[in-house]
Amino acid sequence: MRWLGVLPRDELARVCAAAEVFVFPSRSETFGLEVLGEPDGSCHCGVMHEDLKQACYGAMAVPQHEARARALDFSWAHAAQLFERHLVPVQGTPGTC
Q: Among 25, 47, 61, 68, which one has the highest count of C-beta atoms within 10 angstroms of its own C-beta?
């Protein structure tokens, strides 16, 4: 593991795409898109540990196929399907808002 520092966006995207493990050392991130694993352990793709080194080793132990399958749950296609499933017809007169 090594710190790469601040990277330009295009290089950051390349590095993230090639990474086997992503470590996000924050307990209080409010936007949280980086963390796709559930802390309750239900997906087995995220690792939480008080010791960052242990969290890194735990993340490296997650089988890649499980991590990829979980990540695909967050694709644009999947997000669109979820959105569409939650749509409900508008009640009232047709053609009015």
A: 47
Residue 40 lies in a domain: yes
Number of domains making up the chain: 1
Per-residue CA distances from 37 to 7, 10, 86, 89 (Å):
25, 25, 23, 33
Q: What is the mean pLDDT of residues 15-19?
A: 84
Q: What is the pLDDT of residues 30-61, one digit of tens each?
A: 555 555 555 555 556 677 788 888 888 888 88
* 47 belongs to a structural domain: yes
Phi-psi region of 5 (alpha: psi -120 to 50; beta: other; left: phi over 0): left
How many angstroms separate the Cα of 34 from the Cα of each of 55, 58, 78, 85?
Answer: 15, 17, 17, 25
Give the structural domain span for 67. 24-73
For the question of whether the overall pTM of this predicted structure is more than 0.70, the answer is: no
